[in-house]
Design brief:
With 351 residues, the chain is an alpha/beta fold. 27% of the residues lie in helices and 27% in strands.
Length: 351
């Protein structure tokens, strides 16, 4: 098992930026009117947020970062590390983290990293940033995590289009040897499931061609082309249910922490059905698991920071122990127990 035990760090604040554009699933024309309520009840998503065509993930993360930096009053010249976690970058090259360093006015001595991860990305981001900051050679870092996966969905694909929401987040982390904060994390990967969630064309294995744009018909009246997300929900469910409870049990045992000592469980929102199964399997009480699925859908790797803004009143006023988990494309998962609190900011804004 891969474990990280990260200390000597302090989370100063979190900010999340969501698009103002709201898509109502009860108005989703692909599904007949009489079936829409059943559809909404099964996935638990009444509405989701889509960025405009001109808005990229970097724009949402930039807005979140600007808001956060103003709240925590950091000197931008002192930020030494910027990590951008997303699977919807601005370009194939250059790295989006480089562009954000310039937009945010950070020093040219700032280290920048792009990480390509989906729904497990926030846990991975905490691991990378926390490990680099914890030894004290880097004092201040900004973690930017988000996706605009709606751009990769096909309106005619009812297995995907009603699920995904766009969002960008910013998390400020600094070196602090006397802090009570910690990240205790574990990660897992099953690359044999590459086809479970995939955009088949557009990379270097299968470059864009004329055939990439041709819509194909799939079971259930679904249509999409090879530049759209294809997702096999049953296989995602099997991966998560078959692995996440085991990884979670091992995490608590490895770090000798009891689940009863956890204040909140921040579980990635894939669908109502999967979330409920996970909560039951992990024996998590509903009152300890905040949910935003109804109004924000599957916000990919920004789900965990979005959930932090839901408990703003507590996380800004006291220290909390939280279980976090993200899972999805890859196939990839990350679980963790984090202790953070007394934040200067835990807010959501709109673009």
């Amino acid at each position: 098992m891969s474990y990280l035990d990260i200390k000597n760090i302090k989370v100063k604040g979190v900010s999340v930026c969501s698009p103002k554009n709201v898509i109502e699933n009860m108005e989703y024309g692909i599904v007949p009117l009489e079936e829409r309520q059943k559809f909404v009840d099964s996935i638990g998503i009444e509405r989701h947020r889509h960025a405009d065509n001109s808005v990229c993930t970097s724009d949402l993360c930039y807005k979140a970062a600007e808001h956060l930096l103003a709240k925590i009053n950091w000197d931008r010249t002192e930020v030494e590390l910027l990590v951008f976690v997303s699977q919807t970058p601005d370009y194939k090259m250059p790295a989006t983290s480089c562009l954000l360093q310039n937009r945010l006015g950070f020093s040219k001595a700032c280290m920048t990293i792009d990480i390509s991860q989906g729904c497990s990305g926030y846990v991975y981001g905490l691991g990378v940033v926390g490990a680099l900051v914890s030894n004290g050679t880097i004092k201040k870092a900004l973690l930017l995590v988000g996706n605009t996966q709606s751009k990769n969905t096909n309106y005619k694909d009812k297995s995907v289009f009603p699920l995904f929401s766009d969002a960008g987040s910013a998390t400020a982390i600094e070196y602090c040897p006397h802090s009570d904060d910690f990240f205790k994390l574990s990660f897992g990967t099953d690359g044999s499931g590459e086809a479970t969630i995939i955009i088949p064309d557009g990379g270097y294995r299968h470059p864009v061609s004329v055939e990439s744009f041709k819509e194909e018909d799939f079971e259930g009246g679904i249509k999409r082309n090879r530049l759209n997300i294809a997702m096999h929900g049953d296989d995602v469910f099997s991966f998560v249910i078959g692995n996440l409870p085991k990884f979670t049990k091992n995490l608590f045992e490895h770090f000798n922490i009891a689940p009863d000592d956890i204040d909140y469980f921040l579980v990635h929102h894939a669908s109502k059905f999967l979330c409920n199964k996970l909560l039951k399997k992990l024996n998590i009480p509903n009152e300890k698991a905040p949910m935003v699925l109804k109004d924000y859908g599957n916000s990919s790797n920004a789900t965990i920071p979005l959930l932090m803004t839901v408990i703003k009143d507590e996380i800004c006023n006291k220290q909390l122990r939280m279980y976090i988990s993200g899972f999805g494309v890859g196939l990839s998962l990350g679980v963790g127990i984090i202790s953070i609190g007394n934040l200067d900011c835990a807010e959501q804004i709109e673009y």
